[in-house]
Structures are given as C-alpha cells and as structure tokens.
C-alpha cells in the first residue's frame, strides 16, 4: 500500500477530530435537555465519619430499636447476629433477652424431629418472609432489600438512606406514580414501592430521647452504618496507634542514618599518584 501523503494525513486527522467533537456536542446537548427526577443526596455530617471519630453507641442502640419496631416488618438483616450487639449497644444479658424473643426452628433431635426453641446469642436476626416469592407477594411485586450492608451498597452511603427516609413528597406537576407507589426524588426514577416508614413519635425511645422523624432517621442510619462496617472503630484505633509508632520510627531512622553515614559523608579520600621507578 502506497504511503499516505501529508495532505491525506491532515484531512483524516481533521475528519476524526470533527467527528469526535460533533459526537461530544450532541451528547452534551442530549444530556442537557433530559429531565432527571433523581436528586443526589448531600453529604451529611454524621459524627462517626471523621478520620478519628467513633460511632455513637447510644445512637446505635436507638437505631436498633427503630429497626426492630419499624424496619424489621419488611426488611431482613441476615448477616447480623445477636452476639454482635454485645459490648456495642447492649450488655450480654440484654442481648440474650433480645434473642430469646424470637423462636428458631432447630434440630433434628434424637428422634429426627425439628423443634422450635427460643433464640440464642449465636442466632441471626430473623427474616420477615420465608422466601423472596413471599416477600414480593406481600409488597406488590417488590422485594425489600436486606439491610445488613445497605449503608455501603448505595451511592452516598448513610447520607442516601437518611435523605431517602426524609425525602417523601408529592410528585411535581406532570409526574404520576402508579397505585401503591410513592414519590421520592432521592430514589432512582422517583417512584418507590415502600411507604413512608418514619414519622414523629412512631415509637418511644427507651432513654427518653424525643422521637422526631429526623432523630429516628439519624439513629437508624447510624445503626445501619455500624452493621455494614462493625470494625470501623477498631480500624481507626489501629490507625492512630500505627501513626504514633511509625512517627517515632521515622525519627529514629533519621537519627540512625545520620549517625551511621556521618563518618562516610565527612571522610576525605585523596588519590595519590603512583610513582614509577
């Protein structure tokens, strides 16, 4: 194949640049006229999000209460066991009491039969439905997601969950939602099958904290953040310890280097010319 002339190369490059520029312009114009009903949640200043900030354990306990009395009717947390609550939000006896409130099918026994027993610390939180088909049938075809890692599974993390819980409103003019659905601008598409779960004084906190809607949402988001990353406090504690230790080691390493290399760096080497007889 004959080599391309300079003119052909320039024309081909100009055609490529023009095509790419035109495609980019058309894409930008198309995106600019799209009506996006989804709002991006703002980043909220949760107290545990700082580099050395720990979880508010009182808020975790209240958030567990919100989950137990409100959210657990539809949502499971199948990766969380009652033993995980010990020394975090509950004492061991309190966690045992919480576990004993559920009945767990166990077995088989010596006769080969299954039986029901009160829950124990090693048991996981029960699911409100036997299977996904039962969950879909009870929720107009929508399967409620498991909440064990929901705070890490959504863009915006706990800020998204908080905004979603407080974001229910009437749809704007021209937007209609189907029967059994609700409008929430933070949910992709705007139409969500979950009814507004929280409102003022829906429960009564054990510690007397006013159960406003924003307080309920904040506490359950803290609880969900902890359930998704229970090792966060330990990780931050190890970060502080590691930073302190490595800071000391860096200083010692610098001093050791200066001490060992001071002789070599200050040494003067003189090459004397060799004398021949």
Task: Describe the structure using short key phrases.
277 residues, Cytochrome Bc1 Complex, Chain D, domain 2, two-stranded antiparallel ribbon, 8 helices, 4 strands
Summarize the structure in words.
This protein has helices spanning 6-32, 57-69, 92-100, 132-138, 150-153, 157-166, 213-228, 232-266; strands at 103-106, 115-118, 182-183, 191-192. With 277 residues, it is mainly α. Strands 1-2 form a two-stranded antiparallel ribbon. The longest helix has 35 residues, at 232-266. It starts with 5 loop residues before the first helix and ends in an 11-residue tail after the last helix.
Query: CATH superfamily of the domain at 57-80 and 124-232, called what?
Result: Cytochrome c-like domain
CATH architecture of the domain at 57-80 and 124-232: Orthogonal Bundle
Helical residue percent band: 40-55%
Weakly predicted, low-confidence segments = none
CATH class of the domain at 57-80 and 124-232: Mainly Alpha
Structural class: mainly alpha
> Main sheet, how many strands, which sense, barrel?
2 strands, antiparallel
Report the radius of gyration as a whole number of Å: 31 Å
CATH topology of the domain at 57-80 and 124-232: Cytochrome Bc1 Complex, Chain D, domain 2
Number of helices: 8
Write the layout of secondary structure elements.
Blueprint: H1 6-32, H2 57-69, H3 92-100, E1 103-106, E2 115-118, H4 132-138, H5 150-153, H6 157-166, E3 182-183, E4 191-192, H7 213-228, H8 232-266
Antiparallel strand pairs: 1-2, 3-4
Helix pairs in contact: 2-7, 6-7
């Amino acid at each position: 194949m004959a080599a391309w002339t300079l003119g052909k190369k320039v024309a081909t490059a100009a055609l490529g640049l023009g095509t790419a520029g035109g495609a980019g312009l058309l894409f930008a114009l198309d995106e600019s006229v799209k009506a996006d009903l989804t709002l991006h949640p703002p980043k909220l200043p949760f107290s545990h999000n700082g580099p050395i900030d720990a979880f508010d354990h009182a808020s975790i306990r209240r958030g567990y209460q919100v989950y137990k009395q409100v959210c657990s009717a539809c949502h499971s947390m199948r990766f969380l066991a009652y033993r995980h609550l010990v020394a975090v939000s509950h004492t061991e006896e309190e966690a045992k009491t919480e576990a004993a409130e559920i009945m767990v099918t166990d077995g088989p026994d010596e006769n080969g039969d299954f039986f029901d027993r009160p829950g124990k610390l090693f048991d996981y939180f029960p699911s409100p439905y036997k299977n996904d088909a039962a969950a879909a049938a009870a929720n107009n075809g929508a399967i409620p997601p498991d909440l064990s890692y929901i705070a890490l599974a959504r863009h915006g993390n706990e800020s998204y969950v908080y905004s979603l819980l407080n974001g229910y409103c009437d749809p704007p003019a021209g937007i209609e939602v189907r029967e059994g659905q609700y409008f929430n601008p933070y949910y992709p598409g705007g139409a969500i099958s979950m009814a507004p779960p929280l409102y003022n004084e829906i429960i009564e906190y054990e510690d007397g904290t006013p159960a406003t809607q924003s307080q309920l949402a904040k506490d359950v988001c803290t609880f969900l953040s902890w359930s998704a990353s229970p090792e966060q406090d330990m990780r931050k504690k190890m970060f502080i310890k590691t930073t302190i230790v490595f800071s000391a080691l860096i200083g010692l390493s610098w001093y050791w280097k200066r001490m060992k290399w001071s002789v070599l760096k200050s040494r003067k080497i003189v090459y004397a010319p060799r004398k021949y007889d």
